[in-house]
Amino acid sequence: MEWHTGITALWALILAGSDLRRRRLPNVLTLGAVAFGLLWILWSGHTWLGGPWWTGLMGLAAAFFALLPSYAVKKLAAGDVKFMMAVGVLAGASPLLGIYLLAALFTLPVILLEYLLRGQVQRKTPFGFGIGVASVLVLLSHWPPPVFPLGS
Fold this sequence. Notes:
This protein is 72% helix and 0% strand. It is mainly alpha-helical. The longest helix has 23 residues, at 96-118. The chain is globular. The mean pLDDT is 89.
């Protein structure tokens, strides 16, 4: 595992814990990562995790447009969208579908447990928890195989 991947995994776990505990994803960690990812692309010519620069921009845009409808109908919070955009710009577009699908699977038990313990579900789901855990698993396992191969 490269150190870039380890730092990204740690960042994702910190955000997952924050969303689970406080239902809040701090802008300094989400928008800060988006800004860092864009600056890294400008400086190095590739994404933080080594993909071609254009996959980072595609990942940013894909995450935004994929989660925007759920945000518009108030099923997700803005922090969830910013978190996924940060993952997209740091890792590129390739892992986003796997992260998105696994995030939904990891969020479901949290919602069910909340319902069992409280008898209701809060209006906004802790999707950031799912994004964080799914990001760690996908990035550390290199699953799914990249749609856009890393490198030039």
